[in-house]
Amino acid sequence: MHVVRHGETLHLIARRNRTSVNVLLRLNPKLRRRPNLIYAGESIRVR
């Protein structure tokens, strides 16, 4: 799990975790509806 920090994007989180945005979206179906809108404090799966 990754807790989103202020200023982070899915692209940045994916790159830091050596994965892709598509993988993050597959692991986190709730993000598919709004992939450009994530909030600080939100938990997302990265693996």
Automatic annotation (TrEMBL):
Start and end residues of each LysM domain: 1-46
Ranges that cross the membrane: none
Pfam annotation, one family: LysM
Source domain of life: Bacteria
InterPro entries reported in the protein's UniProt record: LysM, LysM_dom_sf
Name of the protein: LysM domain protein
Organism listed in the record: Acididesulfobacillus acetoxydans
